[in-house]
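@channel sequence for tomorrow's demo:
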Amino acid sequence: MRYATSGLLPALVARLLLVALVCAFAGSALAQTKPARNAAPASASAADPLVQDANQRLDSVEKTLSDIAKQVAKGDLDDATLAALQTQVDEIESELGKGQDLIETQLSNVRDSLTELGTAPGPGEPPEPAVTTDERNQLLAQRSEINAVSDKSTKLTTSANALSNEISTKRREYFKQTLFKHTALIELFSTDFRPLMKDEVDNFAATYGAWLTYVWEKKRVEFALSIVISAFAAFFLYRLSGKFVERTKIDFQEEEPDYVARLLVAFWTTMVPIIVLVVFLIASFILLESMNVLLPDARRFVGVAFAVFAIITFAYLLSRNTLAPGRPQWRLLPISDSAARKLTLALTTMVAVNWLDRLFAVLNDTLNADVHLEVMRNLITAVLIGSILIAISFIKLRAGEGTVAPGRGLLNFLRPSFIRLVVRLGGGFVVLSALTGYVSLARFAAMQVVLTGAVLITTYIGILVGQAVAQPGGMMRTSFGRRFVERFSLSAVRADQLSLVAGLVTYVVALVIGITLLLLSWGVRFSQIRLWAENHLTAIKLGSISISLGGIFIGILLFIGAFLATRWFEKWFDSNVLLRSRADAGVRNSVKTGINYLGIVLAGLLAISAAGVNLSSLALVASALSIGIGFGLQTIVSNFVSGLILLVERPFKVGDWIVSGSAEGFVKRISVRATEIETFQRQSIIVPNSELINASVGNWMHHNQMGRSEVAVGVSYDADPRKVMEILMEIGTSHPLVLQNPEPMVIFVGFGESSLDFEVRVYLADIFNGITVRNDIRVAIYERFKAEGISIPFPQRDLHIVSGGGQTDALAQEIEKRVQRAKESGIETDAKPAYDHPDAGNDDDGAR
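structure tokens (generated this afternoon):
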């Protein structure tokens, strides 16, 4: 505890130093962005005490590092204490590095301010104002003070780095000495363990027996209440997880399940029970601790016992559900049923032996057991684990009759003979090391075989899950995936894209967790991993921009969350506010589009800020964008601005029937760059927004859908115009889709070459009915005119031929022949021979 308490001091001092440096230089940084020459004296009075405070905190950090160095120099510390001290030194070094970055930033600001002020006037030059001289002197003094603080911080960072390296060297030496320590087995086996075991049992009875008596006599109700509450919490979680698994619609009784289904079944049947068990154990431990049921001597043992029980249970469930003894159709590896049973038993036994040994180690530590018992326990555990490994190598893994090969798996990547050789060599090394006296080496190797093997197998199963999910059609191969696709109306391409993303995410999660657990199993402390991640993965500098990978991940999550929240708010606002306000489709579309774009912009800014990018650093990007707009992006910007105008002004909306140039059709979508128009032939035309702003656009539905349709008709000159108008008016008025207000009208347009021309004009409530109404009116006109004996003439032409010579007579004869042939063919013609025409002999008329 003394090291833990002392370890809080350097971390606290380092954080206070960072805060002090920020406070010391924040005011001057703001002042130097836009130098206020009339504020120089006030700044001078405030700078010195803060710099002095920073120096005092640096002195405190220096003293803390000196105390840690003295503790390390004693040389009587174990590995756990050295690791804790190294973590503290690394934290101090990390905080000093962050403070140094702030110092360099502030020093750069001071230098920029001095450059802006310029140099002092030389001899013979006109003097400068006194306030400028005072400000320059203040900045020079501040630069000197900051340089002093920077030098001191740099020296402390170097000292902390050297101290951390020294501790690392001592830890390696300690580990090497412990690992390769030789034990005389003859002396060990000649030891009489009976009195040692008797003392162990007596100590256990005295320590834990007294605790059990205390619980039974004074904490019986609290103990029972803790167990009952924990059981209820576990049962509730079990029921909840059971309902969730039921919603996945996984058929556990399927005869020939897909590989993805096998992975999902193995995952759920492993994770649901283990999560329920972990919740029960954690809740029990917390409740027992809060109700003072656990005494100090029993607290550590009970906590480790709970953890060991959970680990052994997890190993059993994982091996059972992965190898599926007795259920070959659900097996993930192509091995026989006999091999699955043997492997499940062997792997569970090996994990149980390893972690029960850890539990006995904690027990012996709390009871101060004799060192001979510790060595014998390690020896027995190492020999057992090595023997189990050797036994596993002799198990025949070939798939037997009735086994379903999954088509992918560990045995498809590594040959069984190679795996068998590696396992046999590992087990033989453990047993040989133990029997030759290197008990610590054997125990360490046995521990790493169990831990590393468990981590690698679990990570590999996670990678298999990611591989199965990322396959084309992977989402549609499970009922849960199919229901997800149906729920969100996803296309097959989008479903495959989501499968790929889900597979990649599974890869990343499996690798990150696997690598972290692998490092932890090899003795790397979690605090060291955290510090390494903070120092190497959270501060990437690109020029003047500092980017954090952790911040990037958080920024991505924030962007996704903000985007989903925007889409939800957009749908909620449309279906609740806009719909109830009776807003038309155009207003609803414009508002939804505006909310969507605003949400995306805000989500982007939030994500960029969370990623560690200073928005003020984007000024360079904005400048470059301005230059690009000036040289080549005028059209894009014009379309963008035009799109915003269309969304706000709304000269037309989605669903309107518009005419623009050669494009005519319905507006399907209005974006900030272009508008999509669907023609009557179902052709989509993408029109840039700037063309719709700068050109004339006809909108049949701007204010409403009412419109006018016209039907033109011609009658012969023998017809009575008034009667024709009366008939046409009657036809137009009688149609059910024609409005009576404004009422239809019939116009006598004029005298045509072959007919008297009329036009029926009717008004419709919905212009979309124009084609149907015009078609009906034309049919009614034809039928009514036919009944009334009114003819609709076709164009006629009279051909006048003047005979005045031989050529004319020959031409007349040719025409007469052709007319005769036409009549014989049933073709009517009004052409007349020249000699039958009343003006045939008039040369003047012929000339005319």
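heads up for whoever presents: Residues 86 and 167 are 6 Å apart (CA to CA).
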